[in-house]
Write a structure and sequence with these properties.
homodimer; alpha/beta; Dihydrodipicolinate Reductase, domain 2; Alpha-Beta Plaits; 3 domains; seven-stranded mixed β-sheet; 14 helices; 17 strands
């Protein structure tokens, strides 16, 4: 007996294979996997190799009934999975009468949405790894899912190896979250920590990362912060129950970070990471993705290489921290399989009543506000053509916006003809800082616009 | 309508209060809290202050129907909770017709067990923070809970602020765990990191911790490792699905750790923490609670003060790390409330089908083995009456057990009359090490038995 909405004309049992010879299959929950790239193949490997433990933890097995890929003929399906239907047409997976959970791993926001909507229309639950679609339309898709009385799970959409969805949805659901910081793009973190470790420049580290397969040929989604932005949009929506529009999140990439910046950051006992921040302030919720100075003594500063991490502060539970691989077929596969187990358990227990993870939005206490209202100390790095009076002019621009200088830093061994130096300023608003930077824009001794980064104190 | 097993003679609606004036109450899930110490009062505070967000996340409110404490008359109940029944008799809470979930916060293994069994007998689910009882009898109590078709939740029993149960039960349930390391006793970690930070001795730091309320008047459960042992027993049972007998876990406390040991550990680029370890080896599962050297570069080494942390390595998901407050009314209260929300959701969705979190025990691949089979490099610290030939004699004892010396360390500024020095040895078995230490027992130049700590390499 499968709780599948059969359409007129469906013949789920037309297949003459005698099912009775597979006694467990009658109790299994059927899975269909659409998309057999890295994550899909990792998922199938875990479902095959770890089947015994999965079945014991659940009390019943998961059974892969159908798989779909544009190049399905070339894909190796683990022998332990038996002979699932292999197809290039995703509708065959969604329509398969024994598929109770549809795993959407094709990515993007077009076909993926069609797959999810088709599954919901047939009363089938969905597991997805699609950060882009969930960031854009997660709340709406959840509303449809609830209306269709299906479940939806998306652990794999953010920080593959870190079970941050389970943490926010269940582990600390009783807390009231104030602040969430994330290092959510492994490529950026790898590049930054390589610049820090070896003193190499951004371009050469990026090229190496591309050669090693850690970065895409077109690196923009990673190094310009858009991938991290999608992930922050999802996590902030879950943590604060707000509908977050990704394009509204202030986003700045890491292309301008140089070894010099790490030298100055270290002088200040800080380091630099691409920080995804969501902070409740008295005015509202501040969201940003940007390179930031964080104290070397904090646990986030210890996140190196392609790892991801999330740091959460709640009103009651204080600070907690979560760390793991951000991507990879197997870590992300664990997220997909763990979601499958949870959804399968709920299907078996016949539980249709659920609430959108975005449900607490109605409190309205976390409405996003513009980044110009951010208040922080800032690091300002200048490259100038040397001449007298530079500091005086910069200081005047800051003073005109009532910004106090905290310190001026200059590394001793720099070439005097192209002189990067740093001014740190006391906490001010981003708006005041922008106004001061606008005043500086006309100063002809600047070789490039100043690089401004917040110095995160609340970590 | 409440899914409560009514006994003949119960008169749940004899109370004449017109329930119709509280429209939400009809949809609420009723909670009874037994034990109003630190965790109980933290739980009530969160249920009161965070009620709006909890109700939105769940789709219905939680309602505290009854509270019990031996000194209930002296307890402040948050006004927002209304007027729950207040009693000194826990049976009144369990028997209350509107209580659907019983929260057991009395601790210990006698009354707590009675409470849980009485709740199960009435078909009521249980949330508990009881590490001792869960470590001793968790698997049996779970079997009873399943037979009674109730749910049981115990997030608060280990590492209060860290949602490690949610992580193991759901977040990474699809993985196959190889190794789990924990820093699970905040008092020990506070004492060790204060010794490290200030160079103060164990006794004086302990005394300060007692005066500040961080350590009990009788500190044995903490500093001798028994509290950590209970927590490791629970986490290892969840991670590996084995029935773990706490008394079988090799356990060693931190009383012998001195500032000198940190000096030597730092020379080796390591630090010292009370490490709870559960590792799968080719021979079986190795469990231990003991002070250990861990590399300074690892993320566990950054865990300071009263924080807890858990580091997990899975076959597929690689390493993940979880960090937060180990205790405290509010962090532990978050764990209790989050459990209440999950259990309430399952009650409302009418889902009785569940599996013990210890279910995968049947695989039998993780059977615990004796610590004598542990294989590690070791740190051996000696205090001796100085005379010629000491190193030669110690080296001979090690050589007799085929143990190779890795290095000999002596801090330069030590008083020659009472000379702590260190020998590190290459990986060997704990049995060989013990045999060598037995040979040394007769050497009259030793002021005290050598202090032996493993050097953890697999972190």
């Amino acid at each position: 007996m499968h709780p599948v909405n059969l359409e007129p004309g469906d013949q789920p049992f037309a297949d003459a294979t005698p099912r009775a010879v597979q006694p467990l299959a009658a109790q299994s929950v059927g899975v269909g996997v659409i998309g057999l790239g890295n994550v899909g193949s990792g998922t199938l490997a875990i479902l095959a190799e770890n089947a015994d433990q999965i079945a014991l933890k659940l009390g019943f097995p998961l059974r892969v009934e159908a798989v779909c890929s544009r190049s399905v003929a070339d894909k190796q399906i683990p022998a332990a999975l038996g002979s699932p239907v292999r197809t290039t047409n995703w509708r065959e997976v969604v329509d398969h009468p024994d598929v109770q959970i549809v795993v959407e791993l094709v990515g993007g926001t077009t076909v993926a949405r069609e797959i999810i909507e088709a599954a919901a229309a047939r009363g089938k639950s969905v597991v997805t790894a699609n950060k882009e679609l969930m960031a854009l339309s997660g709340a709406d898709l959840w509303d449809s899912a609830i209306a269709a009385r299906i479940n939806m799970a998306m652990e794999a959409s953010v920080a593959g190896g870190i079970p941050i969805h389970a943490v926010l949805r269940e582990g600390i659901s009783g807390d009231r979250i104030n602040t969430l910081y994330g290092i959510l793009n492994g490529t950026c973190n790898y590049i930054l920590t390589e610049i820090e470790r070896r003193g190499a420049g951004f371009d050469s580290v990026l090229r190496e990362a591309q050669e090693a397969g850690y970065a895409e040929a077109d690196p923009s989604a990673d190094v310009d912060g858009f991938d991290a932005r999608s992930k922050l949009a999802i996590l902030a929506a879950l943590a604060f129950g707000e509908r977050i529009v990704p394009a509204d999140i202030y986003t700045e990439g890491i292309r301008r970070i140089t070894p010099i910046d790490f030298g100055y950051a270290h002088m200040l006992r800080h380091t630099i990471r691409l920080i995804c921040a969501a902070r409740q302030t008295p005015d509202g919720l501040l969201l940003s993705v940007r390179p930031s100075l964080i104290p070397q003594s904090t646990i986030l500063a210890g996140v190196r290489g392609a790892y991801n991490a999330v740091w959460v502060r709640g009103k009651y539970g204080a600070d907690t921290f979560y760390y793991g691989r951000g991507a990879g077929p197997h870590p992300t596969g664990v997220a997909v399989v763990s979601d499958l187990m949870r959804v399968a358990r709920e299907i078996r227990s016949g539980s249709p009543e659920r609430v959108s993870p975005f449900a607490h939005a109605r409190l309205g206490e976390y409405l996003p506000i513009p980044i110009s209202l951010n208040r922080a100390a800032y690091y300002l790095r200048f490259r100038v053509k040397d001449r007298p009076g530079i500091i005086a002019q910069l200081a005047a621009a800051l003073a005109a916006e009532s910004i106090s200088i905290e310190g001026v830093l200059q590394l001793p061994d720099e070439d005097a003809s192209d002189l990067p130096f740093v001014i740190t300023v006391e906490p001010t608003t981003e708006q005041a800082l922008r106004d001061a930077l606008a005043r500086m824009a006309k100063m002809e001794f600047l070789i490039e616009p100043p690089l401004a980064m917040p110095i995160e104190a609340s970590l």
